[in-house]
Structures are given as C-alpha cells and as structure tokens.
Sequence to fold (244 residues):
Amino acid sequence: VFQKWVNREISNFDYLIQLNTMAGRTYNDLAQYPVFPWILRDYTSEELDLNNPAVFRDLSKPIGVVNEKNAKTVKEKYISFFRYENFEDPLGMIDKFHYGTHYSNAAGVMHYLIRVEPFTTLHIQLQSGRFDCADRQFHSIPATWQALMDNPNDVKELTPEFFYFPEFLENQNGFNLGQLQMSKEVVNDVILPKWAHSPEDFIYKHRKALESEYVSAHLHEWIDLIFGYKQRGPAAVEALNVFY
Fold:
C-alpha cells in the first residue's frame, strides 16, 4: 500500500483510510473512529487558492501547536504539569503529557456528526437525554478552526466525512439545536467558509485540497505524528505530541 501511495497509484484519501484500518480504527467504534487531518488554514477568503502554500495547515505540527503562540503553554504544561493542572497523581503512575484530551475520541466524533443518525441519538444519550447547549455545538467551520487556534486544549482533528459526505453539514432532520447565547443565532446548517457555496462545493474543494500537490508533499509529516514514530518516546516529546 505504501509503495502504491508513493507511486501515486492510490489517492491520499484512500491511503489514509487504509492506514486507519491497519491501525485498528473503524467506523464501528466511536472510540477508535478513523481520523483525518485538518489540512487547510484559510476559512475566510472568498476564493480558495490551492496553489498558495499559505492556505494550508502546517502538517508537521500537532493541531494544538499549529498556532505558534500555543507552543509555550504546551511546553510548560509538560514540564510542570502536576502543578499546572492541579493534577492528582499520588502514586506517580501517570506519564507527563502535552494534552489532556485527544485528537480523536467518541465525543468529538458525535460533535462533528450530530446532525445525522445514529450520531444524533448517541449525542443525546451522552448528554443525559437532551442536546448539549448551543454554544458547544458544531455550528461553523471557520469558528471551529478559530477556536482550535485560540485554545491549545482543543486538539480535535477531523473525521473522514469532511472529505466525502456533504449531508453531515446540513440539518436535514430539522433538529432543534438551540440558539447561541451572545448573537441569538439559531444553530441549524453548519456555516461554511466563504469560498464554499454549498455543502457539496465544500466537500469538492476540501477533497481537492487533500489531493493537492502541497498536501501530497507533506502528508507524511502528519502521518508520523498520528501513526508513526512521533507517537511516543523522545520524538513525541520533541514534536509536542504527547497525549494523556
């Protein structure tokens, strides 16, 4: 599979799906759901220029430190995390970490896919029988990216659906997801980047970005973080890539 990918006989999308499968990730287990990278950083331009390297996320860094400003906080947390987090570990059994949450977990999958079943029902069960408050819902792709850049504790990567399944961006079932507190805006369909004219257009351009020259040249750097040698040990510490 690797050789086929290097020879460009299979797409970046197919290679990532196969890597997830080989790593034991599956659509049948929310705790081990397939994980895909954020690949863009431009969610505000009117047009998306895939020939401009500046529109892409730095794939060599974990999402928590793609914004350089967060790196200092993350490093400090690792060095003195028992003090920093008021962390109780009387037996000294817990290894140090940069992030107390994970880039892929069941709650994160439900967060992104809340508008489609069975994820809607699973989310409601997780929230004791009702939807979580509107301000915590996935309601806007640009706002979600901005929150990631502002908050080193939010380290969610994407699910594969962001590259092929436009329906998850629409509230086709008419669920009442509430109103945002500040703006009183009703949470309905997901707000798209300005360069996407519809959910289908977003998926088309996002998939095109995944298969672009830039991503093809750098995707291995992200794979090293998630599936490769930077997952643990000294390489993970150096890459600011150690998870609780």
